Amino acid sequence: MYVRDYTVPGRLQDSILYSIEAGGKRLRPILLLATAEAFGAPVGKGLTAAAALEMVHTYSLIHDDLPAMDDDDIRRGLPTNHKKFDEATAILAGDALLTMSTQLIAEDPSLEQEEKIFLIQELTKAAGPRGMVEGQMQDMLSEGKEISLESLEAIHKNKTGELLKYAIRAGAMLGKASEQSMQQMSEMAEALGLIFQIQDDILDVTGDAEVIGKPVGSDVVNDKSTYPGLLGLDGAKEQKNHYVKTAESALTEAGVEGTVLSQLIQYLSTRDH
Amino acid sequence: MYVRDYTVPGRLQDSILYSIEAGGKRLRPILLLATAEAFGAPVGKGLTAAAALEMVHTYSLIHDDLPAMDDDDIRRGLPTNHKKFDEATAILAGDALLTMSTQLIAEDPSLEQEEKIFLIQELTKAAGPRGMVEGQMQDMLSEGKEISLESLEAIHKNKTGELLKYAIRAGAMLGKASEQSMQQMSEMAEALGLIFQIQDDILDVTGDAEVIGKPVGSDVVNDKSTYPGLLGLDGAKEQKNHYVKTAESALTEAGVEGTVLSQLIQYLSTRDH
Fold first, then answer.
1. How many other β-carbons are positioned within 10 Å of the β-carbon of residue B145?
2. Which A positions 122-151 lie with beta carbon below 8 A of chain B?
3. What is the pLDDT of residues A124-140, one digit of tens each?
4. Where along chain A do its domains lie?
5. Rounded distance, CA B11 to CA A139, Å?
6. Where does the sequence pass through the membrane (chains A, B) (predicted)?
7. Rounded to the nearest 5 degrees, what angle is found at the Cα of B2, between the Cα atoms of B87 and A98?
8. Quick one: fold of A2-270?
9. What integer is the mean pLDDT of B150-179?
10. Distance CA B52, CA A237 (A)
């Protein structure tokens, strides 16, 4: 709904809506809203923070799919943005989504000034060159190279972990979580990011392309380092279970165990797409 | 100086620094700081707003130069970012600069909360899909087509005018300009944007490639609509002089005539690069 308010009819709007409406799991906004709810934030308080997050995630997919980057033709079961439109339009659609993300938060009349600033600081830090963008750069530089488990985790922490952490921290802040709970939820978010990535890697080996909506085995084709590649399939599953325990303990310490967040941890560690 | 604080050493940082340090006229930050000074803002108050603006401008140049867009090899007398590095790195460097721009403002301890929010709102509005990004889309769609003077001005208003307006409005706001002065300075900024663009088009016909730092005649090669193309060279100069008068009147009405802003109008309308 926000996209139409912030764009004008035409090719750019069509291209942005195409990628936003392509769906996906909406995992990041759901995590943000579930965390806000767990900490008792008023309903609707996290809507722009969640939409901004989905915009940043969608922009990153559009740019990562470009021929100069991962060169993917299919995303969420549909042609990627540059296949449906063209490369120039896809680059601009990504740029537009990134720009709108902070605009949306800055213009939300239901947020306090200090909430807006917190959200923009955390979102840009997570998405920027000490977060997601650096992660994508490192991911590209590591293609075709043997890398250590430590390097692999550092890449994922930047590439996907930081935005998941924003989701959790933004939700907790909007629910006025204590400093200590914020810290525990950050730890939970870090574990969750690794669970997410390990399961992604496992699905690239064992998954069903039709259920996932993109080809499997592409990590091997692209010569990417993965958890199953480094630890074997059983080792990867074991590592994942370790992080599930870490995440659940953190929830308990922060006093939000038994909420929908526990179910999300279970879902993320067992999802089939 | 900000770039190093917000990035980590490596290829992405090198690529960002390469384009930021390539220089250029620094017109936008100078305009912002000159306007802030004209309205009596404390020295240093506009530094992050100005740096953020230059980051957005630089990101837009990096992305516009890409092969899928304007496909330029030379910028500011040096190889373009994707020629010096590669396309993937250039896309990410642009993304990083855009993300850092709002981060820089949000984290500036010398700005009030409401100043941060005003600056972020205006910068994202100017840069986004109702401003610069839409302008670039329309510019690409109009290549090879005959367009009216009205359409040409609409494209330039979005593509370059909105960011110049941000420069002027941000500076005036930091100097606590009145509502009425803000309105007059917005009109001045709109005229200035058109002066800038007309002179750009004129230089593409009459300029010296070595002084400009990029090839001349590229508008004709790329089949772009320009002021000299639509109005003839003399007609374009006349149109420019009309806007110079508009801009100078607005300065007088806002009570900041005779400041460095008057000199900047003169400089922009007569610059040779």
1. 10
2. 124-125, 127-130, 133-134, 136-138, 140-141
3. 999 999 999 999 999 99
4. 2-270
5. 12
6. none
7. 50
8. Farnesyl Diphosphate Synthase (1.10.600)
9. 95
10. 44
* Residue tagged 């574990």 (tokens): A191
Q: What's the whole-number average pLDDT of chain A?
A: 93
Give residue for tokens 């993937």. B88
For CA atoms A29, A133, B70, B233, the dihedral sign is positive
B24 Cα to chain A: minimum distance (Å) = 22
Considering chain A, what percentage of its residues have pLDDT values greater than 70? 95
B137 CB neighbours in chain A (<8 A) are 10-12, 89, 92
Is ipTM > 0.90 here? yes
User: Rounded to whole angstroms, how far apart are CA atoms B102 and B109?
Assistant: 14
| Start-to-end Cα distance in chain B | 26
Residues of chain A positioned with their CB less than 8 A from the CB of B102? 102, 120, 124
Cβ-based neighbour number of residue B71 at 10 Å: 13
| Helices marked H in chain A | 2-6, 11-21, 27-38, 47-64, 81-84, 87-106, 113-127, 132-142, 149-156, 162-174, 179-206, 209-212, 218-221, 227-253, 260-270
Per-residue pLDDT of A20-79, as tens digits, reads 999 788 999 999 999 999 999 998 899 999 999 999 999 999 999 999 999 999 998 899
